[in-house]
Amino acid sequence: MFEILARYFTVDWQAVILAAVLCLSLAAGSLSTIVVSNRMSFFSDAIAHSTLSGVALGLLIGVDPIATMIAAGVVVALLIAAMRQRSGLSLDTLLGVALAGSLAVGVILYHRAQGYSDLHAYLFGRVTFLDTTDLAALAGAACLSLALVGLYSNAFALLAVSRPLAQARGIRPARFDFILIVLLGLVVSVCVRAVGLLLVNALMVVPAAASRNVARSYRGMFWGALCVSVISCVAGLVLGDYFSVPPAPGIVVVAVSFFLASLLFRRGAALSVDA
Amino acid sequence: MTAPVLSVENVSVEIGGRALVEHVSFSLGPGEFAALIGPNGAGKTTLLKAILGQLPFRGSIRVNGRMGYVPQRLNFDRTLPMTVLEFLALTLQRRPVAFGIATRVRKSVSAMLERVGAGALLHKSLGGLSGGELQRVLLAAALGEGAQLLLLDEPAAGVDIEGEAAFNDLILHEVREHGAAAILVSHDLSVVADITDRVLCLNRVLMCEGKAGDLLTAETIARVFGGGKAVYDHHRPVPHTHTHGPDHHHGH
Asked: Which residues of B touch A273 (CB under 8 A)?
């Protein structure tokens, strides 16, 4: 086991994978608290599913699929936000439609583009094939996520408690919805390249879901989520190597194990706790 | 002449084609404490939400300074882990609360809570507070940020009956001490008579406006709340009407 871990520090291409996975864990883990406390988890799922259309479109028209994938994630995120504002329909209805619709369109476009040869990688991830380009994209995603936390996490925390109260303090919910939607579109699209569109949402949701079960403060929830994310990603990668299983599902299994363990230590219903 | 803190001119709010508030105009000077009264569905909360910028409206609303808001009842996810200290610090420091709370802010939050008799709640979980405790924390938040205009939407609604009078006294004391202009939405006419300078009677349109003592007559109340309805209070003597025999409804 330690030999396997040591290789990630000594072998060049494995060091790139480890660095990329660490960036992935920082990007997802730092956003996780905001996503979960502001109830945006289905939103990131819908964005993830829409990226397949982007990849397929890129392959069809001969443009770099990474660029079209990110563009598709952001465009679908903005479309959902615009439809929500104009139609007045509930978010879960719109997300259900967007998720199914974008996935179906994606599969059709993909079929037209090149058949199903590489579809597996987009669905379940390709951690072991991550290269320096992916590392740069994931490092960018991590920087964006941490910048969002640094600049606006107080506003998002207040919005999570009460939107009317936040609005009374001069916070414009529509503006912050837009910022979070665009950023989620970018970060989720980049992370899909590593862990696949079916698994990426677990990384956005499970760390904070596990952490909130045991945390007694918002601060505790944030750092707990970040720790769960980093440990899950590194452990999933190394354990996946050790047991010869794909790393992406390995990462998610470790994160879900944290969640299950957190249920055992869940705070009491009364929630009368000291910080 | 001092500029008004709040100026509402010809404001109308329509939702789904239904007019909830129509052609309302009034203004509040610094330190002025007004009560907004009216029956259920009269548009009191709607008008407050328009002032807060939460609802679209026609007309003009000008607020000179910062607003503090205490909602009737705060509906939020009580399982969200957040302490009272963190909640109050969210708008007092630029640094993310998740990265720690500055000593200056910690002291300031402590003082804010002490003012409303809630010093012991500093490290409690927001989700674990009782209705009365939560309203005190919300009042502390509204007062503590240098607000020039306080919007209090039935702030004692979540407080138990025994604590209600004490809570209203606290509001009066703090608003006077703070020197901010305030609008208090209330069904409790004894509170209105006791603690506010002015009364605004709303029933979709502004039906009357003036000093509490002059306005709170049986005749005015009957006109605002509807002729057949009696309005009285459980705790203190207040003006009330019995215009239509046995058909009594509490004004709470």
From this structure: 124-125, 128
Is A2-263 a domain of CATH 1.10.3470.10? Answer: yes
Query: What CA–CA distance (Å, rounded) separates A2 from A106?
Result: 41
Q: Cβ separation of A164 and B53 shorter than 8 Å?
A: no
Residue type at A54 in one-letter notation:
G
Kindly determine whether residue B74 and residue A162, on different chains, have CB atoms separated by under 8 Å.
yes
A5 touches chain B (CB under 8 A): no
Reported ipTM exceeds the 0.95 cut: no
Q: Which residues in B lie closer than 8 A to residue A212 (C-beta atoms)? A: 79-81
The structure's pTM equals: 0.84
Q: Give the start-to-end residue ranges of the domains of chain A.
A: 2-263
d(CA B109, CA B89): 7
Residue B199: strand pairing partners: B35, B210
Q: Which of B52, B85, B97 sits opposite A157 (nearest CB)?
A: B97
Q: How far apart are the two ends of chain B, measured CA to CA in Å?
A: 38
Query: What stretches of B55-187 adopt beta strand conformation (E)?
Result: 58-63, 67-70, 149-153, 181-185
Are B124 and A165 inside 8 Å of each other by CB?
no
Cα gap B69→B192, rounded to integer Å = 18
Nearest CA among B181, B182, B228, B223 for reference residue B202: B223
Residue closest to A109 by CA, chosen among A152, A65, A149:
A65
Place of tokens 């309203």: B135
**Predicted confidence (pLDDT) per residue in A192-225, tens digit:** 888 888 889 999 999 999 999 999 999 999 999 9
| Phi, psi of B113, rounded to the nearest 5 degrees | -70, -40
Over residues B25-51, the pLDDT tens digits come to 999 988 888 889 888 888 998 999 999
